[in-house]
Amino acid sequence: MQLSNSWVCLSALDKKTTASTASLDNRGLAYADGFFTTMGVINGQILWAEYHHQRLISHATALQLDLDHCSLLSILQMHAQQLQQGMLKLIITRAAQDIRGYGYTPSECGSTCEIWLKSLAMKVSTTEPLPLADGIFVPMQPMSTAVCLSSQIACLPPSLAGLKSLNRLDNVLASAELQDIKARSLNSNGSQDIGEGLLRDMTGCWVEGTMSNMFYQLSDCRLVESPSSEMINTANDGKDSADKNKAVKGKANYLTQGQWYTSSMAQSGVAGVMRQVLIDELSTTENPVIIRSLQDEDLPHLSQLFFCNALRGIMPMTSLKLLSGQIVSFKRFNHI
User: Fold this and answer.
1) What local confidence, expressed as pLDDT, does residue 317 receive?
2) What's the CA gap between 162 and 156, in Å, rounded?
3) Distance (Å, whole) CA 310 – CA 283
4) 215-274: per-residue pLDDT in tens?
5) What angle, rounded to 10 degrees, do the helices at 273-281 and 49-62 form?
6) Residue 93 in contact with residue 166, Cβ under 8 Å?
7) Burial 24-37 (b: 16+ CB within 10 A, else e)
């Protein structure tokens, strides 16, 4: 296997072709008919590999794609071993169809896939690794600031909500808005510590960042009893859960101080790998994550905010600039 920064096609899982052989009729290019996942690699191991595996299964099922996810995961692990440190980006699209236009022929096993992989050698940040239970560490990025963006993300039907599909135009436009804000900030005061932008969906709920999921805390206890709140508790009964709970409690840190909330992915946003890792890790603590809608009136009551994704880990914020220009500052926690 020869490591390359170019795209290779793994459609048959036993042979590779280069991107130059790809057809412009590819359904991912024509209709965004597919999904992707981006994996960090450290010491030859895929970070959060089981969560990425579950994404392969759930997304292939949702899009009715015939994907041999076990064989694919084995190939990804081989590429990770050769890469050692960097990023693997996987794009899976529906193969060309005989039917003209959007349609495809459904079958019992799902449609045939085209599988594309890119390996990129790069430094995967491990700044201030934050300890979780079971010896797991999550990268903790330096503090930065966030801004509310005027761009909005789409609301989707239940069958597509939360998927990391190839249709990311709303994020593209939102990211352009964030880059413009960063450029203007740099020109005006010579500093640029803006780390992420907070996005609303079309209903007005604040959901996620341009490239990340979002967790927050509230300073006003009256807002905790919200009819839109749902506690997530995926803990298993028994000794394993008790031991895990004890381990987390023994390492009070940024994640275990206070009650964290995150927005629902039921109608908009991407249900990210790191988001699920953190929900699962906190499920056996005294304060499991609560799924709660974040509204305009909540923003001045925020006491803590961070963004997260599978490559960068946790990105803590010191403040959030609202659309009105008001700046909400957050208290600082000890990271470890």
Assistant:
1) 96
2) 9
3) 19
4) 999 996 545 444 455 555 443 444 444 444 444 444 457 888 899 999 999 999 999 999
5) 120
6) yes
7) eebbbeeeebbbbb
Q: What is the mean pLDDT of the chain?
A: 85
- Residue 88's DSSP bridge partners are 39, 119
Cα–Cα dist 165/144, whole Å: 28
Tokens at 20, concatenated: 């130059």
Q: Which residue has 């994550």 as its token pair? A: 289
Q: Could you tell me the two tokens for 239?
A: 């000794």
pLDDT of 239 reads 42
Q: What is the pTM of this model?
A: 0.86
Distance CA 283, CA 69 (A): 27
Quick one: pLDDT band at residue 26, thresholds 50, 70, 90? confident
Contact 137, 131 (CB under 8 A): yes
Query: What is the CB-side half-sphere exposure of residue 193 using CA atoms within 13 A?
Result: 13
Alpha carbons within 13 A on the beta-carbon side of 194 = 27
- Count CA within 13 A, CB hemisphere, residue 116: 22
Residue positions counted in the chain: 336
Select from 141, 315, 331 the least CA-distant residue to 218.
331
Q: What is the DSSP letter of 37?
A: E
Copy the structure tokens of residue 273: 């790998």
